[in-house]
Hints:
- The chain is α+β, with helices and mostly antiparallel strands.
- 35% of the residues lie in helices and 19% in strands.
- A three-stranded antiparallel beta sheet has the order 5-6-7, with no helix packed on it. Strands 1-2 form a two-stranded antiparallel ribbon.
- A hairpin with a 5-residue loop joins strand 6 and strand 7.
- Residues 89-141 form the Integrase zinc-binding domain.
- This is Integrase zinc-binding domain-containing protein.
Amino acid sequence: xxxxxxxxxxxxxxxxxxxxxxxxxxxxxxxxxxxxxxxxxxxxxxxxxxxxxxxxxxxxxxxxxxxxxxxxxxxxxxxxxxxxxxxxxxxxxxxxxxxxxxxxxxxxxxxxxxxxxxxxxxxxxxxxxxxxxxxxxxxxxxxxxxxxxxxxxxxxxxxxxxxxxxxxxxxxxxxxxxxxxxxxxxxxxxxxxxxxxxxxxxxxx
Length: 205
């Protein structure tokens, strides 16, 4: 690539990514690449044997024949083959997870599959998504308060108002006696509740 100063262009970033994928493929799939460059097929023990891999003009190892007659884009017909054990691929999965706004394993997988074919992708992506601390925090189970034992005053039968709870309500306005011209007074209600019978008694205070 031509050396330039300033910001990277979209073309430079795309070229840099292609070079990175070629390096990763050469590290993990050197035997398969050498076999295809010689015009032979990959070994029957290769994990990508069933993918019918081939090398295109850009030098990248891609999935062959699978969807070549479909109307999908070329990158989806022949996705780039990557090894899940590589650290850069792990970063790629995490970046796709963020791109899908912390989507689940299935959404992350389907988005990634538009351009890449990661070996053993489903289990690998599921494991990487589980490592996301943001998702773990939002999916954490909330603790519920355990109900304590009621005191004997609440559960043992007694006469009404033997055990009583008190509360207040108000303020309220009332007249001490009926008739016009009587001044309204401000007061409160004392609420007495029987703990066992749930009976209530009100008093103006």
